[in-house]
Design goal:
The N and C termini lie far apart (36 Å). The chain has helices at residues 11-17, 23-39, 43-59, 63-79, 83-93. By secondary structure, the protein is mainly alpha-helical.
Length: 94
């Protein structure tokens, strides 16, 4: 299972991975789930997942990827027309 790239895993398996994943790997799983929700137009769900990715990245002092996740969260909020939260995310990402 670990040899299969996250991009190729079924979504149900990604959700299962979150049980044991930690740190940067867990953030990558959240990112993959967020990308999939975004592709389906589920912008608020993707925003929530990117928030969790940012939190996970911050927990391991990975500030670059935390900022990227906050930026993507802002983009998701913008797509959902929740502009005040989008702006907050962009400011936090800066």
């Amino acid at each position: 299972m670990a040899d299969v790239p996250l991009e190729e895993m079924p979504e149900s398996e990604l959700w299962d991975l979150l049980t044991d994943a930690v740190g940067s790997y867990k953030a990558e799983v959240f990112d993959q789930l967020a990308f999939r929700h975004r592709e389906r137009g589920e912008h608020l769900q993707s925003a929530s997942l990117w928030e969790q990715s940012a939190t996970e990245n911050l927990s391991v002092d990975n500030f670059k990827y935390a900022a990227q996740a906050k930026y993507r969260q802002g983009m998701a909020f913008g797509a959902a027309e929740v502009f005040d939260q989008a702006l907050d995310c962009f400011i936090q990402a800066a």
